[in-house]
UniProtKB/TrEMBL annotation:
Sequence similarity: Belongs to the class-V pyridoxal-phosphate-dependent aminotransferase family. Csd subfamily.
Listed cofactors: pyridoxal 5'-phosphate
Reactions mediated catalytically: (sulfur carrier)-H + L-cysteine = (sulfur carrier)-SH + L-alanine
Residue intervals of the Aminotransferase class V domain: 26-415
Protein EC: 2.8.1.7
Residues annotated as transmembrane: none
Listed PANTHER family: CYSTEINE DESULFURASE, CYSTEINE DESULFURASE 1, CHLOROPLASTIC
A single MF term (Gene Ontology): cysteine desulfurase activity
Keywords assigned: Pyridoxal phosphate, Transferase
Name assigned to this protein: Cysteine desulfurase SufS
Gene: sufS_2
InterPro entries: Aminotrans_V_dom, Aminotrans_V_PyrdxlP_BS, PyrdxlP-dep_Trfase, PyrdxlP-dep_Trfase_major, PyrdxlP-dep_Trfase_small
First and last residue of the signal peptide: none
Length: 441
């Protein structure tokens, strides 16, 4: 048994099943959101008496809160080994806001107009680029892995007009980790920059942005606190200070300026220039506390433990008759703890509902905000997707996804696998029952 279990709140919560009995809730939806660390909630309570406005008051509490807010940038920078001299740590709402902010910023730089996204991105690292740039998508192979050959091909094709390669550190669908430092080295040869969407990577493995002078360094990194044991509403955008020194920020208002008259503006220095409005000090305090806890566990230990959970789950889940795994079915070396699957003849939303109502297991189903990637993994061409939209009776394509956190346990995987066996053995009975419950034709 590991001793990670009691680090988060809510692990012993009892929830009702459809038959009226109660079970301990199992959360296998950590790729969406993790529960907070106990230490994070304690830190919020400890901080509460000092709760005050940031950068806007001379009162003792305001000064104290402002100092804590600024020190938290260093905690975050150290965690991902961001170069403190060259980089700025900007606090945002979440990964999505961070990427939209960057898309706006880069647009202002003009001239270089191509952004290479990939076929495996979350919509948040695809849509923000679409109307501002010429976007092309780096292809994937038959397993759903990024094609390094296609990356090189596209770099050669667009050459110096490439502004940015926007790539996920780990997929929120297959869990695949991309070789981001190798990609960075290639992109830099073409004088482009690289953005790593760290939403699924930063909470699970040690991370190193690498020094600015190194060819492998990561130019921009974004991630969200609610996927790393801290609350919603806070995230991070890290990038070269010089990029944010120029031009006008995406959001303007209080906190973003140094001097204003009716016909003159001098913007504040980054990061302040990019943090319009009163900052989310509770969120920042909580995120810094989560980072300190992850550091004290050791990210190598987090990675090792979650890999062993994934290994175990892959091994066990494969024994379920009719179960279809997607992407890489064997290897755990290049993935974070995410496993997508389906059971033949069972719609993904019904399977997810059965797991919840009959066993208290929370999973995610559907396309996980990565529709083009899921369509590719399911072999559904774009034209077919459009046809299905016209027909309300057609099932929406999708999968079921389980994703682990540091507090999950082998016993919980056993409960899942046992339930999946039961569902596979009595598939038609479950289908009949749940089509009625969910009001499905
Ligand atoms: N990128 C990836 C890879 C994600 O998994 C997610 C969240 N599912 C996001 C971006 C968006 O994160 P947020 O909703 O916190 O903005």
């Amino acid at each position: 048994k590991t001793n990670f279990r009691n680090l988060v709140v809510g692990v012993n919560t009892k929830i009702p099943l459809i038959n009226g009995s109660y079970v301990t809730a199992i959360n296998f939806d950590n790729a969406a959101t993790t529960p907070p660390f106990v230490s994070v909630l304690q830190e919020i309570i400890r901080f509460a008496p000092w709760y005050s406005s940031i950068h806007r008051g001379t009162g003792y509490k305001s000064q104290f809160s402002s100092n804590l807010y600024e020190q938290s940038r260093d905690v975050i920078a150290r965690f991902v080994k961001a170069d403190p001299k060259k980089n700025t740590v900007i606090f945002v709402k979440n990964t999505t806001e961070a990427i939209n902010k960057l898309a706006y910023r880069f647009c202002e730089e003009g001239k270089k107009k191509v952004v290479l996204s990939t076929c495996m991105e979350h919509h948040s690292n695809d849509l923000p680029w679409r109307d501002k740039y010429k976007v092309d998508y780096i292809d994937i192979d038959e397993c759903g892995r990024l094609s390094m050959e296609d990356l090189e091909r596209k770099l050669r094709k667009y050459k110096d007009s490439i502004a940015l390669v926007a790539v996920t550190g780990a997929s929120n669908v297959t869990g695949y980790r991309n070789p981001i430092h190798k990609i960075a080295a290639l992109v830099h040869q073409y004088h482009g920059k690289i953005l790593v969407d760290g939403a699924q990577l930063i909470p699970h493995v040690p991370f190193d942005m690498k020094p600015d002078g190194s060819p492998e360094h990561i130019d921009f990194l974004v991630f969200s606190a609610h996927k790393m044991y801290a609350p919603f509403g806070i995230g991070v955008l890290i990038g070269p200070k010089s990029v944010f020194e120029q031009g006008v920020p995406a959001d303007v208002g209080g906190g973003t300026i140094e001097i204003v008259t009716h016909d003159f503006i001098r913007w504040a220095e980054p990061p302040h220039k990019e943090e319009a409005g009163s900052p989310n000090i509770i969120g920042v305090v909580a995120l810094a506390a989560a980072v300190r806890m992850l550091e004290s566990i050791g990210m190598e230990n987090v990675e090792r433990y979650e890999r062993s959970l994934t290994d175990y789950a892959l091994c066990r889940i494969r024994t379920v008759p009719g179960l279809r795994l997607y992407g890489n079915k064997e290897d755990c070396q290049d993935r974070v703890a995410i496993i997508p699957f389906n059971i033949e003849g069972m719609p993904h939303d019904i399977l997810a509902a059965i797991l919840s109502y009959e066993a208290g297991i929370a999973v995610r189903n559907g396309c996980f905000c990565a529709q083009p990637y899921v369509q590719r993994l399911l072999n559904i061409p774009g034209e077919e997707v459009k046809k299905r939209i016209q027909d309300p009776k057609m099932d929406h394509p999708g999968m079921v996804r389980i994703s682990f956190g540091i507090y999950n346990h082998y016993d919980e995987i056993n409960v899942l696998v046992q339930m999946l066996h039961k569902i596979a053995a009595h598939r038609d009975d479950y289908l009949l029952k749940y089509k009625k419950i969910l009001n499905r034709a």
